[in-house]
Write a structure and sequence with these properties.
Oligomer: single chain
Pfam families: 3HCDH, 3HCDH_N
EC number: 1.1.1.35
Number of domains: 3
Bound molecules: nicotinamide-adenine-dinucleotide
Domain 3-hydroxyacyl-CoA dehydrogenase NAD binding: 12-188
Protein name: 3-hydroxyacyl-CoA dehydrogenase
Distance between the termini: 30 Å
Number of strands: 16
Domain 3-hydroxyacyl-CoA dehydrogenase C-terminal: 191-288, 415-495
Length: 506
Amino acid sequence: MTHTSRKPELLGIVGTGLMGRGIAQIAVQGGIPVILHDSRPGAGQEAREAIIATLDKLVSKGKLTTAELQAGAERLTVAAGLNDLASCTAVVEAIIEKLDAKRELFLQLEAVVADDCILATNTSSLSVTAIAAACRNPGRVAGFHFFSPVPLMKIVEVIVGPLTDSAVADELTGMAKRMGHAPVRASDTPGFIVNHAGRGYLTESLRLLGETVAPYPEIDRILRLGAGFRMGPFELLDLTGLDVSLPVMESIYEQYYQEPRFRPSPIARQRLAAGLLGRKSQRGFYRYDDGRKEEVAPPAVPPRDHLSVWLGEDDSAAYPQVVELLDRLGVERDHGKRPCPDSLCLVLPVGQDATTVAVAAGIDPTRCVALDPLFLDGCRTLMTTPVTATRYRDAAHALFAADGAAVAVIHDSPGFVSQRVVAAIVNIGCDIAQQGIATPQDIDRAVTLGLGYPLGPLALGDRLGAGTVLRILDGLFDFYRDPRYRPSPWLTRRALLGVSLLTPEN
Ligand SMILES: NC(=O)c1ccc[n+]([C@@H]2O[C@H](COP(=O)([O-])OP(=O)(O)OC[C@H]3O[C@@H](n4cnc5c(N)ncnc54)[C@H](O)[C@@H]3O)[C@@H](O)[C@H]2O)c1
């Protein structure tokens, strides 16, 4: 099939619900004429009116001119039936998420449109290939996966299956740019890029909760303030709704043949059964009143207890920023080779827990407190062994909060909270690259735009250092003996070579 100049351009949109409307809006704003169709009588017309009302709002906000609104409205027509899509150069479907319905629709469309008309699906979770396989000409079928709300989420995944013509993907890539969206190309695999890369944040956070490392408001606070995520994982689960996120978690886990990295948590299933869906049911992890989330105050800072603090020589040399911090906080230091009998013993583990470090170094575990040396800004995370005495835990809490900084005190965990969650995200991002699902640049672009992370998984790994991420995962793997934490070959090789995680295969 050749996709030469097919004029005039006309984009058909089938399914004019939430997604179809958004796609139609950005298309007409990008100068692309659109014809709308929906199986529900009257839905196409309703969608047209809603889109024009949205454009009108943009005019009142000064974001669009009246002439642009007029031109947009003129580009937007409504089909009387599927046959009206005959002159389309491309059709995007955004109908119900059911394989049979999508296959049936594409078969019907093939009987109506020209041979070189592109058929694109906005599916999030179905196989584009399984949809294409039903078609007479599967080469014309590709995924065109937008995110909600479409006009604000300026990213679209162009999904290429083994049967997709590359010219079709090129056309969709060009169309996305004209719509003002950033296209990223991905091969047809479960979750594509964004929903695949998003597994690390949620599943590792649920795992931490399941291990009672910290209560969920504390995990949220650490990841927001300390690791720089816009929303905590439990706040995010509440926003999406467990009825939506758990099926995605389970489906990707199953589609990857029970890949341990994606193993969902029984906590989520139980909460779903309890109807604790999130914002939409007024109660998820948090309670909501009129859409407002309850405020959960962090644990109070205990009174200061002027214990002297011992920090081992190796940790002092490796983390001068921690030594500076202790000085800034006016801490009395115990400079002995071994800690004095009363000193608080501070350890700085990477990928290890406080207990393992204390026992290996012969430090009294009842006086041992660990500080996360990799995430010191925004929120300082402290971790205790199961036998750390309350006096030492509270003294460390008060000491690190003395300058008003946020401090979280958690139970023992190899890699604290941020190290673990960030390492899980980086590792999954690396494996997406290793599987050739997308280029390293597209992986990072998709994740920053699609998930709003401060950096893409590969740049996030580079910021910590590939070797450090590998050390965290090795520590987790040794401790749990769970293949969930096995490092991706992409990460291991780039760490060994000392090169950026964005380095492609040549
Ligand atoms: N909602 C999201 O956040 C989101 C994000 C990305 C992708 N998607 C995908 O986009 C698609 C649409 O999702 P949505 O949220 O817009 O759904 P929606 O329920 O808001 O809209 C679906 C529309 O399709 C129409 N429809 C159903 N079957 C049809 C058929 N056979 N022929 C013509 N019209 C039909 C319905 O009448 C409805 O108007 C799904 O495949 C979904 O997985 C959704």
